[in-house]
Write a structure and sequence with these properties.
The strands form two sheets. Strands 2, 4, 5, 6, 9, 10 and 11 form a seven-stranded mixed beta sheet that branches. Strands 1-3-8-7 form a four-stranded antiparallel beta sheet, with no helix packed on it. The N and C termini lie far apart (40 Å). The protein has 124 residues and is mainly β. It has strands at residues 2-7, 10-13, 18-26, 33-39, 46-52, 58-60, 68-73, 78-83, 92-99, 111-114, 118-123. Strand 7 (68-73) and strand 8 form a beta hairpin.
Length: 124
């Protein structure tokens, strides 16, 4: 069993920055990819970013490309999402997730383990 714990959410003004963290513990040895998803009120959960654990290859949704940066530390089983130039439309609950696949990274169905989520609120 894998446990994922997110932290770092909060309230920030538009144009500001936040850094989210996701710490993984438990049976993580079969994990290949870690990703971030978000869900805004009244909307479906959507892909934000993902990183392949071994290669460090990164992927981003078009809406966050150039503003968000995903990174990881393999030795600490920790992933981060640096979010800059935040916009009110970035307001959502952000979830980290873990997958045993390196394919279809934008699809939440391939992620078997999920964190509890952390709220990010961007005021205008």
């Amino acid at each position: 069993q894998v446990q994922l714990v997110e932290s770092g959410g909060g309230l920030v003004q538009a144009g500001g920055s936040l850094r989210l963290s996701c710490a993984a513990s438990g049976r993580t040895f079969s994990s290949v990819t870690m990703g971030w998803f978000r869900q805004a009120p009244g909307k479906e959960r959507e892909f934000v970013s993902a990183i392949v654990w071994s290669s460090g290859d990164t992927y981003y949704a078009d809406s966050v490309k150039g503003r968000f940066t995903i990174s990881r530390d393999n030795t600490k089983n920790t992933m981060w999402l640096q979010m800059n130039s935040l916009k009110p439309e970035d307001t959502a609950v952000y979830y980290c997730a873990l997958s045993a696949s390196a394919y279809r990274l934008t699809m939440e169905e391939v992620y078997a383990s999920w964190g509890q989520g952390t709220q990010v609120t961007v005021s205008s």
